[in-house]
Amino acid sequence: MNRHAIWLIVILFALGLVISCGGGGGKKEKEGDGNGGQEPQNNAPVADAGVDRITLLDTKIILSGEGSHDPDWDPITCTWTILESPVSSSALLSGSATVYPSLIADVEGVYLLSLTVNDGTISSQADTVKITAASGTSNLPDTGMKNFYGDTGTITFPSPGQDFYGQDAQYSTNPMTFVDNGTTVTDQVTGLTWQKGDDGSLYNWYEASGIYHSSYNASSSNYCGSLNLGGLTNWRLPKIEEYLSIIVYGSNGNWSSPSRLHPDYFQMSTGYVHLWTAEKWSQDASYAWALFVPIQTNMNPKSTTHSVLCVNGPIWDTNSFTNNGNGTISDSDTGLMWQQADAGVRLKWKEALAYCDSLSLGGHQDWRLPDIKELESLANVSSEPAINLAYFPFPSKTYYSSTTHIDPFASRAATRDFSTGYIKLGYDKITELNVRCVR
After folding, report:
1. Does domain 53-134 have CATH number 2.60.40.10?
2. Whole-number Å distance between alpha carbons of 285 and 218
3. Are 340 and 392 in contact (CB under 8 A)?
4. For residues 89 and 132, is the Cβ–Cβ distance under 8 A?
5. In the chain, what are the helix, strand and coil shares in percent, each to the nearest 5?
6. Which residues pair with 434 in a beta bridge?
7. Domain residue extents for the chain
8. Which residue of 122, 292, 390, 431 has the fewest C-beta atoms within 10 A of its own C-beta?
């Protein structure tokens, strides 16, 4: 039999395993199981409607039933329904019998959807997912910035139309809220659970992430992967944006360091540490990104030793973009809407704040300069430029955030370099940089 014939047989066999919804879908074998050749018991399939999400009004959100499966590897079919929706909503599901149906929320509020799957004989228990529709509301944690700053130091509360109006402290989205579990800390905004503090030791990137290397991790050590803490396993290295979710910007009470991991909950062995992240440098496989607290990112050789702080929970994916066709881009994972093109000119920080506050785009007037956590949500350090060019085709280099970098320079604003991936200690606010607004 020639090679082409063999490949044809393989393809035809694979097609026989395809299922119409979720996981599973293989061949259920009859075996000598002591049942006199009878068919084995048919187990009910399991529905998985995915995780709860936040979406913007009038923006298509794609649901996913891909986690559904059948224990017997039978093919399964999907049935999605809307159980609850806000009063006066006329939203409908598109593709309700598919793995990936879609919904366009037309009224603010909660949409409760149900998924059941069927293996041809038995239906699963229903699994539900909650979709919360909001208008221009972010589900990212707030930065914790409390004070107001000008070009060089603190100022009084700026009113609309005044210089420096629209900065970070002007807006409070989702105040950081944590639960101290003893050895772990749970973030009630993101749902992630964190190791309360590093163990005081230093690890190279291979040891921290459990990646084998003949020279640097010949024993396949896996610090995060082998951690058993607070009754939890499956610990992992965090992404940069996950680290940023627990960073506090701004002075508050007796906090001695104005910009760092939340000091009321996290206990680090030293005040200024490098922490390994899970993200590798796209241009050289021997380098990975590390977070320097207080906040900036560096790419270091993976052989370098740094501190490690592990996280537990689903990996953040904050890049579900939709082009609205009116100069704006919506991200259904964060609930934010972005200006697609940047300002087109470089501006000083004071000018950048004023530009976004006065912007009228896509039928909206409530634009503002993003804080550093919001700005980071656009980044993808697995590529250079570190931004999705299909949605943001103008990869200018460094962008201002509305967050003042007061540790220790109140004259600087936190910035994001999208040409590579750096979060930097910031530029003096009189520097002219790029601007992209958010709402």
Report:
1. yes
2. 18
3. yes
4. no
5. 10, 30, 60
6. 399
7. 53-134, 138-439
8. 390
Model pLDDT, residue 153? 86
Residue type, 255: W
- From its phi and psi, is residue 289 left (phi > 0), alpha (psi between -120 and 50) or beta? beta
Residues 6+ apart with CB under 8 A from 161: none
Cis before 294? omega within 30: yes
Q: Of all helices (H) and strands (E), which one includes residue 207?
A: helix 205-209
Q: What is the DSSP string of 329-380?
A: EEETTTTEEEESS--SS-B-HHHHHHHHHH--BTTB---BPPPHHHHHTT--
Tally Cβ neighbours within 10 Å of residue 181: 16
pTM of the model: 0.66
**Residue-wise pLDDT tens digits, 232-283:** 888 999 988 888 888 887 654 333 454 477 878 888 876 667 888 888 777 7
406 and 352 in contact (C-beta within 8 Å)?
A: no
How do residues 361-413 score in pLDDT, each as one tens digit? 999 888 999 998 899 888 877 777 888 888 998 767 889 999 987 656 788 89
Instruction: Report the distance separating Cα 313 and Cα 324, nearest Å.
Output: 31
Give the Å distances, CA to CA, from 402 to 396, 420, 429: 18, 21, 10
pLDDT of residue 255: 39
* CA 390 from centre of chain: 19
